[in-house]
Amino acid sequence: MDGMSTGPGFEIQHEPDHLSLVPSLLQSQIGLPPLGSRRPRQVTLRNAIHCSGVGLHGGRAVTLALHPAPENTGIMFRRSDLGIEVGASFDSVIDTRLCTVLAPAARPDARIATVEHVMAAISACGIDNVLVTLDGPEVPVLDGSSAPFLFLIDCAGRIEQSAPRMVLEVLKAVRVEENGAFAELRPSHAPGLSLSLSIEFKAAAIGRQAYTMRLSEAGFRSEIADCRTFTLREEIEAMRASGLAQGGTLDNAVVVDGAHVLNPAGLRRPDEFVRHKMLDAIGDLALAGHPLRGAFIGHRSGHGLNNRLLRTLLADPTAWRLSGRPSLDLAAA
User: Fold this and answer.
1) Is residue 245 part of a domain?
2) I want to staple 286 with a disulfide (CB 3.0 to 4.6 A). Which of 32, 123, 211, 232 is the partner?
3) What is the pLDDT of residues 281-312, one digit of tens each?
4) pLDDT per residue over 207-220, tens digit each?
């Protein structure tokens, strides 16, 4: 439910093995954990687990379950109320207004909305194969972050499978832009995915923020996972008139009014806003279908630009390749 950002961009610089932002905006950097000595294998859940909640935008009660899945299944979503499945893939995205929505090409009515928070948790935990079932059209928002999904994954446990994990390597830079916002993927000599993201909002409580990290499970857990979705107070009425944010409350979203955060407990982190935007980007980029090896750089990017970026990358067969070379074993990081 992140609001639209405005204002001029600022410079982000990148080298293949080093990420840097304008110093005054740099919030944090997370080091690269040591690589394992062997080629990573695919991972699934040890047990099934479920939870219930409400959808952020539809406001409907929904039960979600995570199930183990066979090798080479990937991440699949199933509408149990409709008996319809759709893969967690960039080319199954049908809507990106304030969240990422999946649906089968032949059944656009069988929507599965707000997949980005659970996808970020699954991706950061290095889970390759899982079936996500829902009895409604939207993933429950829970507290507005990925932390509850990490809890579910921890309770379910993980098990290594026999098949090797394939990595999608970025071979050349691709970039998409819109109204001063941009998102870019570049090659990197370092394993895994690094991310640099900046945002800029007129609301004084948010302002300009930037964050840089190299993705690992440990870093995601400690720095990103508990950061909640957010919106601007003046946008809530228009969203609800459009049928969005029907389930949004101060228990599952940060609401900003000018210089003020309206949530009684305040923020979980001073830069929770940009960290949540990075959480969203991790979830959106997980729709590539394989762990990415490269560098993501974005300014004011959201679900729409993130999806356009993957479509642009994967439409060019010279810009990527699937590789069995070792990447970050995120589950062990």
Assistant:
1) yes
2) 123
3) 999 999 999 999 999 999 999 999 999 999 99
4) 999 999 999 999 99
- Tokens read off for 325: 């070379």
From CA 195, how far away is CA 167, in angstroms rounded? Answer: 17
Whether residue 183 sits in one domain with residue 100: no
Does 71 share its domain with 48? yes
Residue 289 shares a structural domain with residue 272:
yes
Q: Give the Cα separation of 87 and 221 in Å (integer).
A: 25
Domain-located, residue 6:
no
Say whether 282 sits in a helix, a strand or coil. helix
Cite the active site residues. 303
Domain span at residue 135 reads 41-164
User: Which pLDDT score is estimated for 1?
Assistant: 56
Residue 1 placed within a domain: no
SS3 state of residue 111: coil
